[in-house]
TrEMBL record:
Entry superkingdom: Bacteria
Protein name, entry field: hydroxymethylpyrimidine kinase
Alphabetical UniProt keywords: Kinase, Transferase
Biological process annotations from GO: thiamine biosynthetic process; thiamine diphosphate biosynthetic process
Protein source organism: Halopseudomonas laoshanensis
Keyword rRNA-binding part of the UniProt annotation: no
Record InterPro entries: HMP/HMP-P_kinase_dom (IPR004399), PM/HMP-P_kinase-1 (IPR013749), Ribokinase-like (IPR029056)
One GO molecular-function entry: phosphomethylpyrimidine kinase activity
EC category name: transferase
GO CC list: cytosol
Domain Pyridoxamine kinase/Phosphomethylpyrimidine kinase: from-to ranges: 18-254
Length: 266
């Protein structure tokens, strides 16, 4: 008789597909495997992109997305939800409806509005709808500073200024740095209860494709494992930094984080 092992925590991922494998759903799956979790992928959009930039995308019909997600939720004990690319207003409303049906699940919201190469992955009103409708349902949002500025409608805002506005909508906010010329990167966690935590890491050379997806997925995994929020944020940041330190350049553009060890399948 086969011995049944304890199952890994399941994280439902609502993300776009990146054919280069650098970002999107593949990043989610790899990062969650590395945390010891099982990724349940629900595709929200298809993209035409590579390590250089995105040239086009197509958002799936809401019925297909709801059907994918409900197929998982009706079968598996989901422990957390990770949200990535949405692409249009209808998909924002789709995820809002889904999360309202499952308010007990911690939601990690990665507000994907731009590809690593700078190309748009949704019109500006998607950011507004995400802020107004989805951030209030999330346990934590993980924008980088340019994304936080879009969400807060503060084009030149500092992390503190963006957080002051966005905490009116979400309970916890992790604004990641690394978009200036500073030698040390300051990643800041802001909590609505007044708590603030700064995590400092060494700046690495190069540009990276999929770092935001990697971080948000790792964080969702740590939360699914039962780790407390501040500790989970630190664990996810430390893991993401290591994936960037060991990144590779399979294409002509940005580096891709190495989310799994080389000997993973050996």
């Amino acid at each position: 008789m086969k011995t049944l092992l304890p199952f890994r925590p399941v994280v439902l991922c609502l993300s776009g597909h990146d054919p280069s494998g650098g970002a999107g759903m593949q990043a989610d799956i790899e990062a969650l495997i590395a945390q010891g979790c099982h990724a349940a992928p629900t595709i929200t959009a298809l993209t035409v992109q590579n390590t250089v930039d995105v040239s086009d995308f197509r958002v799936l019909d809401r019925e297909w997305v709801m059907a994918q997600a409900n197929a998982v939720l009706n079968d598996m004990p989901v422990s957390a939800v990770k949200l990535g690319m949405l692409g249009n207003l209808a998909m924002v409303d789709t995820v809002v409806e889904l999360m309202q049906q499952h308010p007990e699940l911690p939601l990690v919201c990665d507000p994907v509005l731009r590809a690593g190469g700078g190309g748009s992955l949704g019109k500006d009103e998607v950011g507004f709808a995400l802020r107004e409708k989805l951030l209030p349902l999330a346990l934590i949002a993980t924008p980088n500073l340019p994304e936080a500025r879009i969400l807060a409608e503060l084009p030149e805002g500092t992390a503190d200024e963006c957080a002051a506005k966005l905490l009116l909508y979400c309970r916890n906010l992790l604004i990641t740095g690394g978009h200036g010329e500073e030698r040390e990167i300051h990643n800041r966690l802001y909590c609505r209860d007044g708590g603030e935590h700064t995590f400092i890491c060494q700046r690495l050379p190069g540009n990276y494709h999929g770092s935001g997806c990697t971080l948000a997925s790792a964080l969702a995994g740590r939360l699914a494992l039962g780790e407390e929020l501040v500790s989970a944020v630190k664990s996810a940041l430390d893991y993401t930094w290591r994936t960037l330190r060991d990144a590779e350049q399979p294409g002509h553009g940005q580096y891709v984080p190495r989310r799994l060890p080389l000997d993973y399948c050996s």
